[in-house]
Amino acid sequence: MRNVFRYANIYQKSMVIAISLMVIELIVELVQPVIMSKIVDEGIVAEDMSVIYGYGAILLGMTLFAFAAGIASSFFAAQVSQGVGHDMRQDMFRNIQMFSVMKIQQFATSTLLTRLTNDVTQVQGLLFAFMRIMLRAPLFIIFGIVISFTINIPLAFILLSTVPVLFIIMIFFMLKGMRLFRFVQEKMDRLNHIIRENLLAIKLVKVFHRIGFEKKRFIQVNTDVMNVNKKALWVMEIVMPIVHLVMNGAIIGLLWFGAIQLETGAHQAGELVAILNYATRILASFGVFSFLIMNLSRGRASAGRIDEVISAHPDDDATFKSIQGRLQGAVTFSEVDVQYPHANSFALEKVSFDVRPGQKVGILGETGAGKTSLLHLVPYLYSPTNGTIQIDGTSIEDWGNDIRRHVTLVPQEGFLFSGTIRENIAWGNEHLSEEQMIQVAKEAQLHDFIESLSDQYDTFVGQRGVNLSGGQKQRLSIARALAGHPSILLLDDSTSALDADTEKNVLQAIRQRACTTFIVSQKVSSIMDADMILLIENGKLVGKGNHTELLQSNPLYQAIWRSQQKEGGK
Amino acid sequence: MVDSKKQRPSIQTSRHHPPMEKSPKVKNVTGTLRRIWGYMESNQKRFLLVLFFVFLSSILALLGPYLIGIAVDTITGEVSSIHFTTILWMLAFVFLFHSITLALQNYWMIGIAQQTVYRMRKDSFSHVLDLPVIQFERTQSGDVMSRLTNDIENVSRTLNTAVIQLSTSLLTLIGTLCVMFWLSPLLTWMTLTIVPLMYFGMKWITKRTRVYFKEQQKELGEMNGFIEESLSGHAMVKLFHQEQRMIDTFAQHNRRLQKVGYWAQVYSGFIPKVMNTLNNFSFAIIVGIGGWLAIATNASTVSIGVIVTFTTYARQFTRPLNDIANQFNTILSAIAGAERVFQIMDQEKEEVIDQRKEWLGEMKGDVRFQEVSFSYTEEEKVLNRVSFHVQSGEMVAIVGPTGAGKTTIVSLLAQFYEADQGEIFIDGVDTSTIQKQTIRKQLGMVLQDAYLFETTIRENIRYGNIDASDQQVEEAAQLANAHAFIEQLPHQYDTLLEGNGQGISQGQRQLLAIARAVLADPAILILDEATSSIDTITEMKINEALGRLMKGRTSFVIAHRLHTIQNADQILMLRNGEIIEQGTHTELVQRNGYYRHLLTTQQMMFE
Lengths: 570, 607
Known about the structure:
The structure holds two protein chains of two kinds. Chain A is α/β, with parallel strands linked by helices. Chain A has three domains: 1-151 and 294-317, ABC transporter type 1, transmembrane domain (ABC transporter transmembrane region fold); 153-266; 331-567, P-loop containing nucleotide triphosphate hydrolases (Rossmann fold), CATH 3.40.50.300. Chain A contains 20 helices and twelve strands. Chain A has helices spanning 2-8, 12-45, 49-97, 101-104, 109-134, 136-151, 153-200, 202-207, 211-263, 269-311, 371-377, 396-399, 421-425, 434-443, 447-452, 470-483, 500-512, 524-527, 547-553, 555-567; strands at 331-338, 348-355, 360-365, 386-391, 394-395, 407-410, 419-420, 460-461, 488-492, 516-520, 532-537, 540-545. Chain A is elongated and about 115 Å long. By secondary structure, chain B is an alpha/beta fold. The longest helix of chain B is centred in the middle third of the chain and has 54 residues, at 243-296. Chain B folds into three domains: 15-182 and 324-352, ABC transporter transmembrane region fold (Up-down Bundle), CATH 1.20.1560.10; 185-301, ABC transporter transmembrane region fold; 354-442 and 562-607, P-loop containing nucleotide triphosphate hydrolases (Rossmann fold). Chain B: Its main location: membrane. Chain B: It is a multi-pass membrane protein. Chain B: GO terms for molecular function: ABC-type oligopeptide transporter activity; ATP binding; ATP hydrolysis activity. Chain B: This is ABC-type transport system ATP-binding/permease protein. Chain B: Keywords: ATP-binding, Cell membrane, Membrane, Nucleotide-binding, Transmembrane, Transmembrane helix, Transport.
C-alpha cells in the first residue's frame, strides 16, 4: 500500500485540491443541519419569514457551491488516479523488459498480465474512491460529532458513545466475513475446476465409467460451497440490523434525554432536531464502511502484487559494453551446470564441448533433456550456474549483453510481432535495405510466398493480420535472424514444420553463410552431416562426435537412427 | 498431418458490467421464473414469508421517522395528544422489530438462495454428464462451462440479496410517497420536481460514460494484446535488444489508455454528485417552503415535526429511485443466466434414449460395421455406408487425411455417437440394443491429447479401474514404461499434477494414459496416435508400451504416420467418409493407390 502513496505523491497538488474540494462538500453537508436548526428556532418558532428566506438562500447557495466543488473534484481525482495507474504500468513494464529470460519465469505470463491490467485498475478505483467517498464517511462521523458538541454537549455525548460500539461491531463482523469469503472462493475454485475437468475429459469419464464417481465428487464440493457461502453471507448480512439497532437505540436516548433537558429549559428544540439529523446521517455513513473495508483489503492485495514486480531486481539491463568487430564464432563450454530457481535438480550438468568457428553442431535429445537450456546459454539469456562458457576465448560474463549483437536464436514456434512482414524481418535491424531484406527472405525460402501476397512485404501479420502457417512463421523467423548477420546462429528445432525440400534449401543457404551453427532437431537426417553431434539425456551429455563415430559407439544414437530409418520406410 | 486440435475452453468472466448497461435479453421470463420457483421446492412457503417480512420491515422503516417527528412535536408542545413516553416505547418497539425483521428475512433468504442454487448446480452438472458426447461437439465446451459457473453464480448472487433489495426499494418508494402525500401533498409535489432533473442529469452523464467506457475497453484490449505479445516474445526482445522500443510502444498504449480512462472516470464521478446535490436541493426546498408554510398557516398545514420527518423521507425517496434501475438490471441478467442453464437441462439425456439390455458376460472383441452412415448436419455426410469386419484380437489401423472421418468411426464404436443408418455389431450383437454404459465398460481409450486430472499420479492411473490396488497401479505403470520417469519425480506416485499435467512432457502424459488403459484391461482398445511433437526417444518408449497393451486385444488405431501401422492386420484407408482402400500394408502397397501415394509423400518428409 505504501508504494501507492509514493506514486500518488507525484500528483500531490491535484490530490490536495481533490481532497480539499471533497472537504468543502463535506462541510456544506455538515452545516446543513445547523442552518436547519436556525431556520426552525429563529425562523419558524419565532415566526420570522426574513430569517427563513435568508437562511434558505444560504442553504441553496451552499448546495450549488458544493455541487461545483464535487464536479471539480472529479477532474482532479481522476487525474491523480489515472496518472498513478499510468505511472505504475509504465514502471512495471519497464522493469519487466529488464528481466532476464530466467527471471521472467518466476512470474507466470498470465499473472504479469493481470498485474499490469486488473491489479492496476483495482488500485486506480481504490484511489479515486479514497479521494471522494472513502475519506468522507469517517470524516463525516468525526466532524458530525465535533459539531454536535458545539450545539449541545450532553446530547453529543450520547452520540459519541455509540460510535466506538458501532466500530467494533463492524470491524469484528467484516473481518470474520472476509475470512469466510476467502474460504468461499477456494471452494468455488475447486467446484469450477471439477466442472472444467469433466467437460474437457468427458470421453474419459464415460469410457472409464466414472460418471457416478464424478457426480459424487461434485456433490461433496457443492455441499461445501453451499455451507460456507451461507455462513459467510449470514455474517455479512447480520451487521446492518445490529448497526441499525444500536444507532436507533441512541436516537431514542437522544429523544428521551432531550425531552428532559427541554423541560428544564437547557436548550431549544432546534438543537435536538439538528443532532437527530446528524445521528441519522452518521448511521448512513456506517453503511459505507462495509464497502470501504472490503475495497481496502482488495486494493491492498493488488498493490502488493504490483509492488512485487516493481521492486523485483532487474537483472538484465539493456546496457552494452562496446566490443566491436566481427566475431569468429568459437564456442567453448567447460563443466557447465544450469539450475533453474526453485528446481532441485540440474537442467544441464557438467556439459563440456569445443566448437571451432564455422562448424555445424547438431543437438539431439528427449523433450526436456536440456537442449533449449543449452541454446539459451550462448546469447547469455541464461547464465551458467557453474562452469565457464567462452566465446572467441572471452568469457560470456565479459561479453555481457553485447554477445547478442553476434549471436541469434530462432525458436521452434516462429515468433511474430503485430506489424508488416517487412517490420518483422527488419525487427532489430532498422537499417536493413530493401535488397538485403529480399536477399534474406530468399535465403529463408520465403520470397516467393511473400510475392504471392497482395500487399507483399507490407502484409500485416500477427494478432490482427494474416494468419501464417507454422512453417511460414518459422521461415520468417529465420529470415529475421539472418538479417542481423550473426556469427553464431542457433536453430531450436526451427525447421520442424518445413517440408523436406524447403528444409534442405534453407539449411543449404545457412551453410553458405559460414557462421557457427547449432541445430536442435528431432530428425537425425537434418543433422547427420554436422561436424559434431551432441546427444543429451536428462541434462547430461551422453554422446559427442560426428554421425559415423556415434553410429559406431553410441547405443542410444543407434536406437534413434534405427527407429527413424524405419520411419522413412526403407 | 496433425488432426484438428481441440480448442481449449476459456472461462469468460463477465462479472463487471460497465454501469448502466442495456438490459440483457431474456426470451421467456415467466417460464424461467416458474422453473426457479420450482427449484425452491420445500422453501416456497418460506420465500413467501420472506416477502411478508420485507413488507413488514419496510413499513417499520417508514414508521420510524414518522414517530420521531411526533416525538419532536410532543417535546416542543405543538401536538400533545399522545404521551411522550408512550411514543418512545412505540419507537423502541418499532426499531427493535425493524432490526429483527431485517435479520430474519436475510437469514432465511440466504438459506433459500443457497439451497436453490445447490440444487440447480447439482442437476445441471449431473445432466451435463449424462448428455451424449456429441452435444459437446455441437456447443463449445467453453460455453457450457460459462453456463455452469458464471451464470449459476449470477443467479446465486441475485437470489442472495437483489430480490430483497428490489422489493425493499419498491415498497419503500411507494410507502414513502404515500406517507409524504398524506403528510403534505404540497411539499411532496415540491420534492418531486427533482425527479425530472435527476432523469435528464443521469441521461446526460450516461450518454458520455458509455462512450468512454467502451473506448477504455478497446484500449485496454489493445494493450492486453501488446503485453501478451511482449511477454511471450520476451526472449526475442532480449536477443534483438529491442527493450527500449517495446517500452516506447507500451508508453503510447499507456498514454492513450490514461486519456480515455481519465474521461470515463471524470464523467462517472459526476453521478453521485448529481444525486447528492439533488438531495440537498430537496432539503432546501422542504425547509424553505415548509418553514414559510409553517409560519404563514400558523403550523396548521405544516408543523415543525412534519418538516423534520419530510427531510428524512425525501432522502429515503431519492435513494431507492436510483437503486431500482440497477437492481432490475441485475435481476434480469440473472434470469437470462438461469434461462441459459435451463436450456442445457432441456437437452435430451443419453440414458433416455438408452432403455436397453445390459451387456452380459465377457466381450471377445469381434467388431462388424455394416453400411454405417453418420452426419452432424443433413447436408454433409461424415461417414457414408462404411462396412468392415474385425476379428477378435486383431489390430486395425484407420488412416486418411484430416476430416476423412477417422475419429467418427471410433466415436461410433465408443457409443459417443449413434449411427444414422446401418448397424454396428460386437460379438455378433447389434449394439443399438445394448446399454451404452455396459459396452463402454469393455472399452479402453488412449487419446491424442491425454487428459490428466488434478490429483496424484497414482489416482490418475487408477482412473482406469477404481478398484485397483496400489500394487496393480505400479504394475500397470511398469508395463506402460512410465514407472522409470515417475520414480524420478519429487514424490513419485504421490506427485500432484496441476493444470492438466503441467511440468511433465507430452510424451510422459501419453505414457500415463497408456498405464490407465492397461489398468482398465479392456476387450477393445481405441488409440488416437500421438502427435509429431513427441521426440523420437519418448516415441520409442510409447510404441513399446503400446505393443504390450495391444497384445491379445482388438485394437483400433487412428494413425497419422503410416510407418507405425505397417504390421496392422487391416488398414482402412478413409477419404471423404468412405473406405476407399482396405487390406494389409503389403496388399495396399501392391495396389498402387492412394495409400501408396500417401506413403511416398510421407517418406519424402522424413528423408
